[in-house]
Design a protein that fits this description.
This protein has helices at about 1-10, 30-45, 75-90, 100-105, 115-130, 140-145, 160-165, 195-210, 300-315, 315-325, and strands at about 15, 55-60, 60-70, 110, 175, 180, 215-220, 220-225, 235-240, 245-255, 255-260, 265-270, 275, 290-300, 330-335, 340-345, 350, 360. It is an alpha+beta fold. The chain has one domain (about 1-90, about 195-360): ApbE-like domains (T-fold). The strands form four sheets. Strands 2-3-7-8-11-14-15-16-18 form a nine-stranded mixed beta sheet, sandwiched between helices. Helix 3 packs antiparallel against helix 8 and helix 8 (about 195-210) packs antiparallel against helix 9. It is globular and about 60 Å long. The relative contact order is 0.14. It binds adenosine-5'-diphosphate and magnesium ion (MG). Magnesium ion binds next to helix 9.
């Protein structure tokens, strides 16, 4: 991880997202150190800037770092932390009285949920429709069967995968006002959108508190609010999926969410093969369609989070086609053979590092 720190110093305020992986290679404590040391090393470099108010939080199974500048920053970050906890208590599959756990425990029956939960589910359905079912929050029983929720990793028997696939299909979720019903035996989880939703909520709290400069890093889900206090744009690093101590490049952004889904965030290996936490709803197995990391850049964290998971699942060809058809989104895609594609909207914002090259998707 020393290299990542060094890179960060060279580049100034560069953040690489790291989640608290439960994989068998990257322990939570190691991940915590990596995030924190990057941030502290970088802030030494930035000694000319005013000191930001900063918070390190562990929530949603991820280390989060919130930074904000301005007189209300402390209050804003306190409110932000409470909001993240509130959302975790609504969205977590592992908290018995969360909205999602109640929906799952009462499949077949209507469950009244908080408006935040309803909004996140409705968005997941919308993006499911937009991506031909690549995003499907009913894939949860398979995520659990592979052990990604518990850390008890295993390759499920084929019959078990097929059996669970019979209970996958987000189109069958019914939302009526704030009442959500999933079919009997169905279960959902919002792992693909929760941090994006939370980043929007935190950004809103910062703005409401008059903050014009801040950086929200929810374990690889970054929202860059305004510009740095010195007037320059925020630099957000994109991790190299084959060596997360390195970056493939960085983006210079303001008022943008930068959200990555990667095959290195949570995985296990068996007989030399790697299995990761993003499941292809068509096969019930880890999505292995050519993409190893998908980063989405946009105004809204919730959309970006949903799309990053979906484009990862779609794979190289379909994801490139999707980017061509959706000029409103920008993306950086890394393929298994380390080809890097970026949409043309990023031509001015993306700097590649380590001598890597990217091909721009023209639209
Ligand atoms: P991360 O949470 O690591 O940032 P993602 O945003 O891509 O990554 O979300 C991955 C999570 O979403 C998984 O841990 C799982 O809970 C859930 N998930 C996995 N595959 C799918 C899928 N095809 N559609 C919707 N949710 C998924
Ligand atoms: Mg996502």
């Amino acid at each position: 991880m020393k290299k990542a720190v060094a890179l960060s110093i060279v580049l100034g305020m560069v953040l690489c997202g790291c989640s608290a992986s439960q994989n068998n290679h990257d322990t939570s404590s190691k991940t915590e150190v990596s995030v924190q040391s990057e941030v502290s090393e970088v802030s030494k470099e930035e000694s000319k800037l005013p000191e930001p108010e900063s918070r390190d939080i562990f929530a949603m199974d991820t280390y989060m770092v919130l930074k904000a500048y301005g007189s209300n920053a402390k209050k804003a970050l306190e409110e932000s932390e409470k909001e993240i906890q509130r959302l975790e208590n609504l969205f977590s599959v592992n908290i018995a009285d969360s909205d999602i756990a109640r929906i799952n425990a009462n499949s077949g029956n209507p469950v009244t949920v908080n408006v935040s939960t309803k909004t996140a589910i409705a968005k997941a359905i919308e993006i499911g429709d937009m991506t031909d079912g690549a995003l499907d929050i009913t894939v949860y029983p398979l995520v659990r069967e592979w052990g990604f929720t518990t850390g008890d990793y295993k390759i499920p028997d084929e019959w078990l995968i097929d059996w669970h696939l019979g209970n996958v299909g987000y189109q069958k979720i019914v939302i009526n006002g704030n009442i959500v019903t999933v079919p009997t035996e169905f279960e959902i989880d919002l792992g693909s959108v929760a941090k994006g939703y939370a980043s929007d909520a935190v950004a809103q709290i910062l703005v409401e508190n008059g903050i014009t400069s801040g950086l929200i890093n929810l374990g690889g889900n970054v929202y860059a609010l305004g510009r740095k206090p010195d007037g320059s744009k925020w630099k957000v690093g994109i991790e190299n999926p084959t060596d997360t101590s390195k970056m493939i490049g960085y983006l210079e952004v303001q008022n943008k969410a930068v959200i990555t889904s990667g095959n290195y965030e949570r995985f296990f290996e068996e007989d030399g093969k790697k299995y990761w936490h993003i499941i292809d709803p068509k096969t019930g197995s880890p999505a292995d369609n050519g993409i190893i990391s998908a980063t989405i850049v946009g105004d809204n964290g919730l959309d970006c989070d949903a799309l990053s998971t979906a484009l990862f699942v779609m794979g190289t060809d379909k994801a490139i086609e999707f980017c061509k058809a959706h000029k409103e989104i920008d993306a950086v895609l890394v393929t298994k053979d380390m080809k890097i594609y970026a949409t043309d909207g990023l031509e001015k914002n993306l700097t590649m590092t380590d001598g890597l090259k990217c091909e721009f998707i023209k639209r």
